[in-house]
Amino acid sequence: MSKICILGNSVAAPRTEKEAPLAGWGQYLGEFLGEGHEVRNYARDAMTLRSYFGKRFTTLLNLLSPGDLVLIAFGHDEQRVNQLNRYHAPREYQEYLRLYVEAIKSAGAVPVLVTPAARCSFDEAGNVVDTHGGYTELTREAAAETGAALLDMAAFTTSMLTELGSTRARRMYRWLDPGEHPNHPDGIIDARHFGELGAREVARRTAAALREIPGLPGDLVDQLLLTPGESPEPLTEFSVSHPEAALDILPTLPDRPVFTSPDPGQFVGAQREFAGKAPAGTDYVLFYEEGRYLGGTAVSASGTWQWRRVAVWPDGPHRVEALAVTGNAVSRRSELEFEVIERLAAPRIVSPEPDAWTGSRPGFSGRASLGTSKVMVLEQGRVIAEAPVKRDGTWQVTHAHDWRPGTHTVEFVAVFGAVRSASASRTLRVRGIPEDSWLHTSLESRETCSGACEHYPAMPTW
């Protein structure tokens, strides 16, 4: 029996009944295979190429047999430059993919690189938004460079969302209004992970894509099992009859809904979630901007609600109005003003000055544009430090390790959530003891000591 092994993160990972309706596409792939082929799903939450490469990967290599298929499905988290433990620079990302491919081929198995699945995000014109920041294309390039097969999940999930449109696409994800599922009585907004319906459809399309890859067994996928499922119904928020008419009804409900998040005047990302409370017994909350209906959400039994637009917010200031509906009665309106940040200016570097000499523990400081939450420090594209931005726009950080003497170029990127700026760079010169200096070589018989060591002589702290 041949194996199809899945390496990846939470989008593919198998789920239990207690986690329903959350589902990973990998748990349904076996439903579409022919006899004599089995799926082994090794995808797990919070995995990146870097974190998986180690004990988990070597364990897999020891289980492989010649002819097995290995789907390598990453690219969701590696793009997050604002997260030290997850970000992979483009070169690092492709280097890891190359190492995976080489190791799997050496075991006699067949590597397949999988581009990341699309998230449920549309622009105001109804087009699916690519939220992976170029990592889809990096995966395609790696497949071409290594000769590995490519399964373009980004392409066929984007097609799936385009076919459904923004009024129905949300039903493929774990994105629920209050009361829709017993495991989430207050609702949940998750535009990344699939629900059971979406995971099964993505698995079906994955199987169909496998049939098109040259060289794979002809009986790998059972063609008779690839019949498309039923298309989901439009979401309630898009089937409300004449929602703008509610603005003209005389308010009769005594209380209106309130926003609890975000705070008034706050900077937010283009896909920000909103939360609040509504009077007991409220059926629905409707949202408007400049008299235009944006969508709505049901209210939980506890009187809470949460809502996010399927379409991303345009950059700049916004004012949203909300009103509660119970039967044919409406409430007065509540307002919330906020500003969406879609672009950031590169940070300004104050210290060190260009080509300045520094000690072996260089410190960096500067200023950032309004809305920046932190500045990431990178060397050769890899994140090495982060600096929170203060209210006055200043930032500073001292690197935690000694730097070797010489000339080094460092990059700085301003971030706010998933928004990142272009990089600014600074070249500095580190003054220290050269590696071939007698001060080093005279102590080669011992392990390296630090400046705080009690032995003598210890290396000075420069």
TrEMBL record:
Gene3D superfamilies, per database record:
SGNH hydrolase (3.40.50.1110)
Any one GO MF term held by the record is: hydrolase activity
User: Boundaries of each SGNH hydrolase-type esterase domain copy?
Assistant: 7-183
Query: What keywords sit in the KW lines?
Result: Hydrolase
Give a single Pfam family match.
Answer: Lipase_GDSL_2
Q: Which family does it belong to?
A: Belongs to the 'GDSL' lipolytic enzyme family.
Matches recorded under PANTHER family: PUTATIVE (AFU_ORTHOLOGUE AFUA_2G17250)-RELATED, RHAMNOGALACTURONAN ACETYLESTERASE
Q: What is the official name of this protein in its record?
A: SGNH hydrolase-type esterase domain-containing protein
